[in-house]
User: Fold these one by one.
Assistant:
Number 1:
Amino acid sequence: MTKPVTLTINGIQVEAPPGTLIVDAAKKVGFDIPVFCYHPKMEPVGMCRECLVEIGRPVIDRATGEAVLEEDGSPKIQFGSKLELACATPVSPGMVVLGKSDNAKAGRDDILEFLLTSHPLDCPICDKGGECPLQDLTMAWGPGVSRFLYEEKQHLAKRYPLGELIMLDRERCIQCGRCVRFQDIFADDRVIGFSQRGRSLEIVSYSEPGFDSYWSGNTTDICPVGALTTMDFRFGARPWELRLAASICSQCAVGCNLALNVRREVVTGGDWVVKRVMPRQNEEVNEIWICDKGRFGHHYAEQGPKRLEQPLVRKNGELQPASWDEALDLIAERFGSAGAGLFTLAGSRLANEDLFNLDQLTRRLGGKTGLYTHMGGGKLTTQVGLTPGSNFKDLGGGGENEPPDAVLVVGCDLEEEAPVWWLLLRQAAKRGAAVIALNPRATKLDRDARFSLRYPFGSAAAAVLAMTSSLSQKPHDLPESIQDLSRNPDLKAAAKAFAEARNALVIFGSEGMGLAESAALAQACANLLLTTGHTGKPNNGLLGAWPRANEQGAWELGWEADANLLEHLSQAEALYIVAADPVNDDAAFQSAFGSDKFVVVQDLYLSQTARLADVVLPVQSWIEREGSYTSGGRRVQRFYPAIQSTTAMPPKTEAPGVRRASVLTGSVPELQGPQADFAIPSLIAERLQMDGLNHSSAAAVFAQIGETVPVFAGLTYQKLAEVHEQWPIVGRADMYYGGTLYENTQGLGVQLELARTGAPAQPQPAWSQVEDFRLPKLGLMAFPVTRLYDQGSTLMHTELLHQRIGESFVVLNGFDAARLKISHGGKARITFNTSAQSVIVQVRLDAALPERVVLVPRSFGLSIDAPTPVEVRPAG
Amino acid sequence: MFAVELARGLATTLRELVAKPVTVQYPEEKRPVSRRFKGRHELKRYDNGLEKCIGCSLCASACPSDAIFVEAAENTDEERYSPGERYARVYEINMMRCIFCGYCEDACPTEAIVLGDNYELSFYDRRNSIYDKSMLIDPVAEGGKPTPQKVEPGVFTRSIPVMKNPQD
């Protein structure tokens, strides 16, 4: 630990670590120095000049090196002739900072007056008005009047869209450069920049479509004025009219902390509406950033005409509205008689509480459960995954005598599969961590990776084995397909860096892999971690870039991906399908839904699978209820109800006395409208005279999980809601410091301990499991890949993103495109040899892809669960 | 003594019999209100018919009794309600909550909301106490057009007009 520096700010002595900037040190004495361009997450640039202070330094006698003393014995302080920047000056010993002197105040006032010379002052219609740093600082510091002529204000374009997501108001921009710097430093998408100079300086977007980045929404948060705003929230409400509900993003496994801003609206008939999604600070998960999918992709959870509102029961071959009692009685009867013939299939969009109750119900009836996912290997992440105390922020270059940390990302286009992990990993790489990108094709991570290695498509597990093997004295027999890779000196160097690292973790994805392949990859990764001893301690272990928010939680609760799903669905007597739509993903599943089978589907919308069901049950979306998710980093986090499901209330015409009467009489009011996913299995169990399941509240179910499931032992909602002070401080009175994002007062979550039962202490023999995958000599092979923006049911309700999502497409390699005479953007007919599926799609070219490889994005209208041979022909 | 008192009383009666009555025949006849009277709110228009209200909600935030509710939306040149980018899609005042303090007037950056002379605010149903935009907005002046208007692009770009400091 380096010795702290002692200095005086506004007459108060303060200690700060060397290198601290004055602006940060001043916070410790409760002095908020105004800033616009400085952001605590970025290096200072000193562009706005708003943080001017007087700085004095002790005079040192050059001859002796001693401090010169005044007559009274105190050190002589020499002040500079001009004001200096508090945001760009690090603290030094004995420094005296005067922030409140007349001189410093006058300097800051003048700067503010200059900043406002061409600012339109249209705060009443500005979306930032009310949470605007410029507005706040003008109130706090400005001169109050301007000496400049109002008529000479510069007028520029007020409505200047940078693409369809972000709106720029050129007049309001104060040229602080936070957005440009964010895009360079964090997002690494240099799609916006400054054009012109001086008073003509303006922000422009270079890309097509405009502001083409997954991170564009963050610039609107850190913009200290209303220059950048989102289209989604445009004129949605004034900030002070919004209520806040803490939530967790439901789109991927990162588990970003969100603040949902809600309000009741007239146009929705008085219903609560989520007006915008903002990041909530959690320095251990997402810091203060979220991706645009999380920011704009919440619309599926809103109430809308397509949402299911009441149970449907099949009568005379048609699904017809029914009461909950009728539906639940029928389900209880049929599930009871099916007993061990019940098969429950759950999607990992469900919360921990839902999965627990579903598992309890099914297990007590003797039935089987299956997790609906395309990624395997989750059990290993519960055994060799992250442990409490892990934080991406801690990864870096190591100490003086310590090697740097290492992160292996394998089979994963990280920015597409777990965007915020990519963002944090890029920062870790900048701090010196060795990032090893081991992928079958180039990804954005390569730019920051110390080692970028390629394995042939289909050989992910083999590639990790080659890495493990290069560390051992006795080389193993490696599959032929990766002989080239295993001879690559970089692989050996990467393996060495990984083995010697202070901390090392592996993130595996599902790039080009199905269930079986990703499970083998996870095993290979676990072997590497066990061989190198990187397990069981903080910041070491295996992470899955899961496709859904709570997939890690499902594995922790004992759910397992079902490798023989079609067989299990076909064999079952009764099916209970929750938050999954297998028929939509693959029409082959339709064959499993025979007429003699009793099928219950529980979902938000009438999905393709639900259309085949006997009973369809409506559920509340994640914003309408309480619950908890377990992130890929094994952090259990709570989300709170943001909007009341008004359909769950009694009809509006009902006399007001009825509800009260039922409370007095003790009778249970009839269930109305969508119910929470965890409540329904419990209601079924109640009808089956089964006790031990709980539907009174999510907190009660979670308490039960804490008592029953060993890894969750001792956890309660109270524990999950605990917070501690985080740095930098954002979202308080000094909101201008970090942007319009929210402080975390609702809980940072708790990381799980490792599962002890059956944990592998030694590497499992995985060599035999790895096949020698070769591409076919003739014909093309399709590999599934994940795109952040897909046509999945959770994203298509966001109309704003439709243009970015685009139509169904496949990515074809350059060789075969030339052979087939298909150009970029052209149409082709793709036929799957195994399923006889044949669709016309757009073709995008990637010249860097190997020959005979076609990439088929998941959830883009094409059914693909594993590498599949295909035929591609030009069409139209 | 008694006779004097009696005469005085009868004189008053006789005088009032011939005096002009003070009763006003409301609602046929209405008394004028004072110059600073604060009655029902009026949403003003510009002479060309565009609404002055830009949907900024400052009236709602200034309102001490939380009587005003505003929902904003975006103008286009094809469908323009007010100058600038923003207009009030929904504007409601709950007259039962309103205390006629006039803070909304003070807060308004475009002088769109003005407390007028109308004091006839009675209703049988509490739901009728909510006055929506169509009930509050002034009729279009002569020569103006009703909103939404189709206008030339690039003309009405400023939400807030240049205004003189208020007199009086």
Note: Chain A touches chain B through 17 residues (CB under 8 Å).
Number 2:
Amino acid sequence: MTTGLTDTQRDNQAAFRAFADSHVRPFADTFDRAEQLPRELIAQLAATNWLAAGFREADGGLDPISFGLLNEEIGAACSSVRSLLTVQAMVGSALGRWATREQQDQWLPRLRDGTAIGSFCLTEPNVGSDGKSVETAARRRGTEYVLDGHKKWISFGQIADVLLVIARVDDRPTAFLVDRQSPGIDIVPIRGLLGVRATMLAEVMFTECRVPADAVVGRVGLGFSHVATSALDVGRYSIAWGCVGIAQAALDAALQYAGSRRQFGVVLGEHQLVRRLLTRAIADVRAARLLCLNAARYRQEGDPAGVLETLIAKYFASNVASRIASDAVQIHGAVGVSREAVVERLMRDAKIMEIVEGSTQIQELLISRDVLQTAMAEATVEQAVG
Amino acid sequence: MPMKSDSTIDRVDEADSRVRQYVAQMTRNPRLGLDDDIFQAGVNSLFAMRLILFLEQTFQIQIENEDLEWEHFRTVRSLGRLVERKLRAPAEGHDDGTH
């Protein structure tokens, strides 16, 4: 259902779907109930080289469209598994761009082959959308930095081997690459989430955690503006495509149910109000996918406009995924709110997508402000030139 | 990979004006001076990333870890000098750090 793909991208898509069908979809409910992903699955993903799919292409990543298709196919089967791809991409791509050669040599191969899992440590109990205001502190002490602070809602924090931590050096947000084995780190699992329950979230506490001075990624003071924003940009892109997957899976389930369940002598799909829900979902899935493809083409060119297009794709796709999954539950009726139906999990997972990597409300502020600023700037230039 | 060719000289000369034009648009300041502090002009959290992508796409260079100094990004003039250095580097036999 995606036009304009190269032969390689189509072959990739087929491989992604086959893997999802055999290794992910049959077990997604089990992952959700167990609230964890098995190491065996991580090893299977590593064997495909897809743990590095979101890295820069120079570091072994896929082209943006193929990476997007991977997130869609895996996301349609299980958003928790797709989240693993997202986090590896965020950490791997940020290191590929901003880390030193030594940092890259130490961690990129391991992130690539799955012997190391990464976690992106920005969010704190008091810091969510306002990422620049992190409270975790890093004090310089001789040849080391000492980290003290508390991160929360950290995806795969329970199993991470390397942490990309945003902390404050005086008032300057700074990125640190922290080995999980460093002294002074405590991990507390977070369980009982509404959705993406197998993303193995954790609280990460740093107490006099000493790291070498060369653990800084990039430069002191550029940890949010450069390192974190580039990681979040990749994360948004991954999640946008993952949301297309959720939406498509919910639509497929709704179509199947509406075409088979009979009430009042006809299948549900013959009832006009059900058709309305289906039509809206059909159009919205296509629109979301096209926005993701649009973002992909800008990203392939390294065009700065891709930043805004990625924001728009994530904003739209996450909202339609949530709406389509909710409508799919509605179409399913009572069974839709039970574990008998996949749409129950899809709806819970979709809701999370409206919050992570920039909530819907933050996206609305960023997108409108950006476009408005551009329009005002153009008007100002026109006035200046008379 | 940067394209080091006869066009290098023209693109070096263009650096200041192209950078100024882009930053002026992003900061809504048509009167932005070459030595004005860009980050004091009021930029959003996406600006740094877009500026880097703009430099890379426009001048076919790679901004890397060793380029990440605040002083390189502070003014239009300093950005122009960064671009100039990246454009000229291979012609002078320097390792541009590309990997």
Note: Residues 7-113 of chain A form a domain with the Butyryl-Coa Dehydrogenase, subunit A; domain 1 fold (CATH 1.10.540.10).
